[in-house]
Amino acid sequence: MAEYINIRGQSIEVVASDPANPTIGQIWYNSTSNTLKGNNVTTSSSWATGGALTNGATYSTATGTQTANLQVGKGPTQNPSPVSPGLVEEYNGTSWSPATSLGTARYAGGLFGTQTSAINSGGAPAGDPALRSATEEYNGSTWTSLTDNPVGSGWGIHVGIETAGLLAGGWDGTAYITNTQEYDGSTFSAGGSLPTGRGGQGAGGTQTAAYAAGGEGGTPPAGTTAAITYDGSSWSSLPSLNVARRGLNGFGNLTSGVVSGGYDGTSPATNTELYNGISWTTDSAMSIGRGTHGQGGNSSSAAGLSVGSGPPGANLKATEEYTGAGSPVTQTITAS
Q1: 62-89 b/e with 16+ CB inside 10 Å = b?
Q2: CATH superfamily, domain at 46-328
Q3: Which residue among 116, 271, 278, 279 is least enclosed by CB atoms within 10 Å?
């Protein structure tokens, strides 16, 4: 029988804890759990329970990756008790911990960037129906006030990085708007208008290659299946979602995008849909129905997360991690 050292040219390493960044095909023995493990790729997508928020809430926004995420703002439905809408938390892939609060307390803002380099603009302050234009920059430890966004809104599209961000649509306190704002690292400038005023979309991608799907508009607001894309100057239509929803979570990119949850009426949904650049298909469902929740993994559909919101109770703290098909994953090797 061939031995591993003859196949791979190396012996199996014995370690006390799993490697932080194993390579595909790497095998090791974990002496703490007394298990043989290896790094492989998944054949199907799935959702798994992640670490719970310190303070759960609705209408939060999030950005970053599955292992370095930033969650900003706590909405009016909170758990275990009402807290400041300006609270911020950071995720390391295992657990959430409190971070420096926003200078202007609000929720449902337009957040884009990474855990250590982000912009939060607009949103809704608690106790005040007017939405703000306040814009703040996060460097991984503190928030700094910047020049206000010319367009004040919340619940809009928010994707990109700090030096190339995109905000579009949302609610300005009176109506769903069509405005698009592009951020270059220092200033906002007007971009191409949305086809119709809408908020609560699931979105992902970059400033010049973004998608947004679902959302709500009109009076009374109702979920839609409509999906659109932005090329850096104008918006155009994409194939429609299979299920009309509003208040969705979104992450990924224009050729591999994911939207999940939302409201398919009045109840929070578990639905997940995957976009492959051509059409939307039904994907693995979340275990908890939720809408108006934070997102993570804007540029990659292979490893995203969904955080906060959900039905009343402890689920407002819940985090679920998404692993797309073809993603690296550590697995325990058994005789079977």
Answers
A1: bbbbbbbbbbbbbbebbbeeebebbbbb
A2: Kelch-type beta propeller (2.120.10.80)
A3: 278
* DSSP state letter for 149: P
- Domains of the chain, by residue range, sit at 4-41, 46-328
Residue 173 confidence (pLDDT) above 80: yes
**Residue 331 pLDDT greater than 90, yes or no:** no
For residue 214, what are the CA distances in angstroms to 30, 120, 156, 164, 332? 45, 22, 12, 24, 39
Q: Which two tokens stand for residue 313?
A: 């109770």
- Residue 80, preceding bond cis, omega within 30 degrees? yes
R_g (Cα) of the chain, nearest Å: 20
Structure tokens at 206: 């970059």
Contact indicator for 294, 55 with CB cutoff of 8 Å = no
Which residues have CB under 8 Å from 149's CB, separation 6+? 110, 121, 122, 133, 134, 135, 167, 181, 188
Residue 209 pLDDT exceeds 70: yes
Indicate the pLDDT class of residue 156, thresholds 50, 70 and 90: very high
The pTM assigned to this predicted structure is 0.84
Distance (Å, whole) CA 184 – CA 312: 39
Amino acid symbol at 55: N
Predicted confidence at residue 7, as pLDDT, reads 55
Distance CA 226, CA 230 (A): 14
CB 153 within 8 A of CB 122: yes
Max alpha carbon distance in the chain (Å)?
Answer: 73
Q: Which pLDDT band holds residue 327 (cuts at 50, 70, 90)? A: low
